[in-house]
Amino acid sequence: MHLDLYSRRNSPIHNWDPRARLVALFVLIVSVATLQSPAIAAIGFVLSLVVLAVSRISWRRAAANLKWPLLFLLPFLLILPLTVEGSSIASLSILSISREGINLGLSIFLKGLAAVILAQVLLASCPFSVTALAMGRIKVPDSLVQIFLFTYRYIDLLGRELGSTLRSLDARGFERRSDCRTAKVLGNALGALLLHSIARSERMFQAMISRCYRGQLPQSCRWRMNSRDWMKGLVVVGAALALQFFEMTL
Amino acid sequence: MKDMEKISDKKSVKNLGVENSSDALPDGWAVEIENLCFSYPGGGTVLDAVTFRLARGRSLALLGPNGAGKSTLLLHLNGLLSGNGSVRILGKKVVKENLLWIRKKVGMVFQDPDDQLIMPSLEEDVAFGPRNLGLPEEVVQRDSRWALQVVGLDDLAERSPQSLSFGQKKRAALATALSMRPEILVLDEPTSNLDPRSKREVVALMKGLRESGTTIIISTHDVNSVPLLADEVLLLNRGVVAFGKTEEIMSERKLLEGQGLEMPLFADLFEELREEGRYNGPTPFTKIEAKKALSKISSAKTF
Fold first, then answer.
1. Range of the domain at A187
2. Which residues of B touch A150 (CB under 8 A)?
3. How far off is chain A from B20, nearest CA to CA, in Å?
4. Residue A50 counted as domain residue
5. Residue A179: left (phi > 0), alpha (psi -120 to 50), or beta?
């Protein structure tokens, strides 16, 4: 997992003060996520693509990162039209496709995609630690910042450990099926992984303490907001507010 | 005194190490441990009346079988664990009030580098300790750069630690301790799981630090590296089994085998030759010493 792979690029998003970028893009994400109308959600989605283009982050990479969110969002698009009650626009045997279902499914799908794209831009446009430091600067509790930082650092490691646990099961002839035994074996493997991760977190904490860690991450960056940072912030927050305004007036 | 009795049981190693260090180095003690006992909650005794002292600028290898308490002992040197007994670092007792000072003086390198490399980039990881000490940013940058240069990773400063090879991670973990400019360096199995080239690189690094006067304590199973790295050896198996000069301890086959260890390869070979009556010189530990010993054997044959 290397979300900040493109953090060294040069773009108006990359050059933005990390605190302003964090606050403004977060406001935009919240605004998009709370939209109800599929038409406004579509505008939000287009807006997220514009932000992605401005950030000069690879489209291919961004699309690859959408793979898992898409798997989560597609069922909304496919199932809700068939399950939400409302005015029927077509029927297939006993199934009826409702306009309200399509609207709801489309709105969830589009705003979900838009939020993920914006979150990608937010996390990919500077090193992860800079985002974490910016969180600290805007008074996000220190413990939350550290959880955020270390989760990112160790999620990859845990993924690799899970991979090697599963490989060791495969090596001993274990076949994954949809039965109780499989569930039991996988449950045990995940439990062992959890225990390992607890032991690892203790060792990791000891390693931090040994380097004089006292509960706070050291701060090294000195940032100063300039007029361009304020302008970019105003544009993005303005866009977020405009989406809400259109939604209300629709 | 149990451990001292154990030491005196081994006639060949008694009166070495502690006493010698004291005479040779008047700078004082880097580490003084007296009657240290420790048990993990719900577990048996891990350390039993461990007593030893190490002079400043000396290097010590901690040898012992798995579960002997080596890592547990190392954690006491940084105040990460606290048992019964006394631990002093550079004359200061390891107690709560001194912990920050002690952690500044004692650099710890953990066995698994993934436990130690926590930040998203290598340069941030190496600067983590100095920044925690509240040093000015220019000092942090200078010391971090120096530490990365020492371990030969200055070109990779911006890389994520996750993307490094295992050997590079080991060296990176060492850099994270070195950047705090510690007087004592404590390393838990620094050469474990390394390929030969990475092992050679780490050993060369250790030798360089040793020559620069840093006090080094290494826990290891790699008996062949011990003569290259350590002035003294402490054989641990919950208590101190033996403590003395490296050459003395590492040529004691029965003592080492009794603890599930073995002699270094060259020493083992020439001790066998000695037993067969084909060699009577000093025990060689390094390739150069072994070559000298071989030429001595061949010249004896010539005459």
1. 137-210
2. 118
3. 30
4. yes
5. beta
